[in-house]
User: Fold this.
Amino acid sequence: MLPDATVRFLEAAARLGLDPAIHHFPDGTKTSADAAAAVGCELSAIAKSLVFMADDQPVVAILSGDRRVDPAKLAAVVGAESARRATLDEARHATGYAAGGTPAFGYPAPVPVVIDRALFRHDEVWSAAGTPTTVYPIELAALVAASAAQVVDVALEEST
Assistant:
């Protein structure tokens, strides 16, 4: 039995012609390190979706699990004065999903999505499927298409 948010995500995926193979980890995959350990992949193959507020507008930044967003770079690529991490309430309101489980698409209203170039070290990545306990593998090209993402450079120079 999958969580309601994951069912909602699967419905959004189906509307895009996708049929993701959901992997459920009851102990959670809330952090990138948790997800990488659970699925047995490199940390950099985790496509984490982070919600930011660029000025007063939400934007989702998808990065490799070993990278962090540079808020100044993010603001610049979306044409904002500044960017900051969204609060938990702002993230849920913008995407319909809880932080730690935010997928790359399937939001109640359009939200701009950017994908950092560093993720292109991998052809296939693992992404959240609507909850902190569900993930799925996806070809990176399919993730870019499904999320209608702009491919940009928004990561800090050092990896974490």
